[in-house]
Here is the input.
Amino acid sequence: MTLKLYYAPGACSFVPHTLLEAAGEPYEPVMVKLHKGEQNSPEYKSINPRGQVPVLVDGGQVITQIVAIVSYIAERFPQAGFLPAEPVARARAIETLAWMNNTIHPTFTHIFMPQKFTDNAAAQAEIKGYNTQIFRSLLGELQALVHAASAAGRAFLGGERFGPLDAYALTFLRWGTIAGINPEDHPDLWAFVQRIAALPPVARVIERERLQLNLYKPG
Here is the structure.
């Protein structure tokens, strides 16, 4: 076995974790406990000096960052069809993946870790509240992608087969419930995410990471 994925439960590493599980080939999932600071240990930083997850190790090659890891997995397991083969469709899928990674993901970081942007408690509260509203609107954009895929007769966001866009959408909706956003506010996205969560490889990762899909608590 040469493939090793370093992941943290509930983090964005869920995306490559589900892809590797769906590929059906041997790999070793290695949990990094962020709440215990394992990402900052000398051992982990010798693998990824930035102290982030995910990290994919294939033999002697170490790959970081979601877009790079997803692209690598898609190329390594072309039979899985994680990204479309047709050039324009593939570009559109990567375009959406990049938007998810560079826009939706950092918006949630402002909600979940406002202390990364200021040490002022009042400013942190403002950052969290402001970005929660932005995140809500971004979930609306994700729901529009679900509508577009359905209108085009596609079962998944990126094409005809499960892929990274679907796993990332699940991750974002789950994060939204952590931020106090009721998933039922976006019913079609919520229905889509529940369908994705029921796919056997996704369900296995959810079980391994011990995730609860809906953490929303009415205020």
User: Anything to note?
Assistant: The first helix runs from residue 14 to 23. Strands lie at 3-7, 28-31, 55-58, 61-64.
